[in-house]
Design brief:
The complex is a heterodimer of chains A (372) and B (88).
Chain A: H1 4-15, H2 19-25, H3 30-38, H4 57-70, H5 72-91, H6 94-104, E1 110-113, E2 129-132, E3 136-146, E4 154-161, E5 164-171, E6 177-181, E7 194-204, H7 216-252, E8 254-255, E9 258-259, H8 264-292, H9 298-324, H10 334-345, H11 352-363
Parallel strand pairs in A: 1-4
Antiparallel strand pairs in A: 2-3, 3-7, 4-5, 6-7, 8-9
Helix pairs in contact in A: 1-4, 4-5, 4-7, 5-6, 5-7, 7-8, 7-9, 7-10, 8-9, 9-10, 9-11
Chain B: H1 9-24, H2 42-56, H3 73-87
Helix pairs in contact in B: 1-3
The chains are: A alpha+beta (372), B mainly alpha (88).
């Protein structure tokens, strides 16, 4: 297994103090993404057999948190690349894994399209179709808010197929594919969110992962479980960045004759931020332990981690803005970014409300009635 | 680790039934459809995939994720035996 701490140091060195500028410009340097992609760090759980670093979930989680602490846009690109790799690993045949996974560790960038104009939380309503014509398939539909699609070379697109559903790997330069960038996202502004328009896109049949119709809810859960882990760990990073900024500011800023930290109402904010960071990290560590021991609980634990960490990040970032006040009221500032980015984490990869439905169902005796 | 020859379809079925009983607090006949009305959720389908992989040291990916393979205790036992034989 590759040294995760070494990878984290390398990314920190490359990011330096540029995250603020990337946020304001709404763009990450493509050559940096290609370099990091070539090192396999954007999808670090891909095994060495497929040219990846082969980190376990816990080590990749710590790496993800360290990137999330610096730049949630870059961390979002990691989430997308990792989720694409995981979808290929989970849904693809061995030949497809051997074909695509090394490319994702050699500098090609990837994004995953779930949501559509008429299908967000209710993904059962997706209308993108993958139609089989023997040696080739034709893909038609529209995806919205696809993180990193602006940068991606390969798009993993979910659609209906053969009486069920599956995902298809679409090279972004295939005729009929159009990428329409979300002009001004409110958070993770440099993550390259875009819509994907697919008009009669012809692809070889071997680009269809699985090659058969699969239950949509099962394959979406499979892919999203990775995404939820990644977002949750990213939120731990957001909390660490906020906590560091708050501790630094409240130690040095003097009002009413004493540093801010000595005011009790301010101290409560520090305590709550610390509690949020610790609880989020525990939920993530627990879920990663389930993942790494291949425990069936990982599915629900990932939802619990994402729910806990995103809520802690949103409320923690809110506190951090309150404490830093005008200092954090400037776009690009680490806490200003955290405030905008964290809110989106309560929405992406399953809203807090969808997470609540899953958790409630789980609590009601581990299994509920089928909704499909 | 148990040798593969020890995993007959009947043994796998018994193990899967035990897991289902633990998780759902009810018993399952070999031919009962888990996903029919009143059965188990789609989240649970993913938990089943992970459990079978972990318990029987197999990888279930691609076309093997078809729901029919998880519909009954019997179909899951057949899937496990087939994948273990393919690994040999």
């Amino acid at each position: 297994m590759t040294d995760a701490a070494g990878l984290a140091d390398l990314i920190a060195e490359r990011v330096g103090d540029q995250a603020s500028g990337w946020d304001i410009a709404g763009e990450l340097p493509r050559d940096l993404l290609v370099e990091l992609g070539g090192l396999g760090v954007l999808c670090a759980q891909v095994s060495s057999e497929h040219g990846g670093p082969g980190l376990d979930s816990r080590a990749n989680g710590e790496l993800t948190a360290s990137v999330g602490e610096l730049c949630s846009s870059l961390r979002s690109v990691m989430t997308s690349q990792g989720m694409a790799a995981w979808a290929i690993r989970r849904l693809g045949s061995r030949a497809q894994q051997h074909h695509f996974l090394p490319r994702l560790c050699a500098g090609e960038l990837a994004a995953v399209g779930f949501s559509e104009p008429g299908a967000g939380s209710d993904l059962a309503g997706i209308s993108t179709s993958i139609v089989d014509y023997g040696d080739h398939v034709v893909v038609s539909g529209r995806k919205v808010w696809v993180t990193a699609a602006h940068y991606a070379d390969l798009l993993v697109v979910f659609g209906t197929y053969g009486g069920g559903a599956t995902a298809v790997v679409v090279p972004a330069d295939t005729p009929g594919v159009r990428i329409e960038r979300v002009p001004h996202p409110s958070g993770c502004r440099a993550a390259g969110h875009a819509g994907i328009v697919l008009e009669d896109v012809h692809l070889p049949a071997d680009h269809v992962l699985g090659g058969t119709g699969l239950p949509l809810s099962l394959i979406v859960t499979a892919a999203l479980t990775y995404g939820r882990m990644s977002v949750a760990w990213g939120c731990v990073g957001i909390l660490r960045a906020c906590l560091a900024a708050v501790v630094e500011h409240t130690d040095t800023r003097v009002q009413f004759g004493v540093p801010l930290a000595q005011h009790q109402l301010v101290a409560r904010h520090i305590a709550e931020l610390y509690v949020g960071e610790q609880t989020a990290a525990w939920a993530c560590e627990h879920a990663s332990a389930s993942w790494d021991s291949n425990c069936p609980d990982l599915v629900v634990d990932a939802v619990l981690a994402k729910y806990t960490a995103s809520r802690a990040a949103a409320s923690g970032a809110d506190r951090a803005v309150q404490v830093l006040a005008s200092v954090a009221a400037a776009d690009g500032h680490v806490v200003a970014r955290a405030h905008r980015d964290a809110k989106l984490m309560e929405i992406i990869e399953g809203t807090s409300e969808i997470c609540e439905l899953v958790l409630a169902e789980h609590a009601r005796g581990r299994t509920g009635r089928s909704r499909s | 680790m148990t040798t593969s020859s020890a995993y007959t379809a009947d043994l796998v079925a018994a193990q899967v039934q035990a897991f289902l009983t633990e998780r759902t607090k009810r018993t399952w006949e070999p031919d009962t459809d888990l996903f029919a009305a009143g059965g188990v959720s789609s989240m649970f389908a993913m938990e089943l995939v992970v459990h079978l992989e972990s318990e029987f040291d197999i990888v279930i990916s691609g076309p093997d994720l078809a729901l029919d393979n998880f519909r009954t205790v019997k179909s899951m036992a057949e899937l496990v035996v087939r994948l273990r034989e393919a690994e040999q």
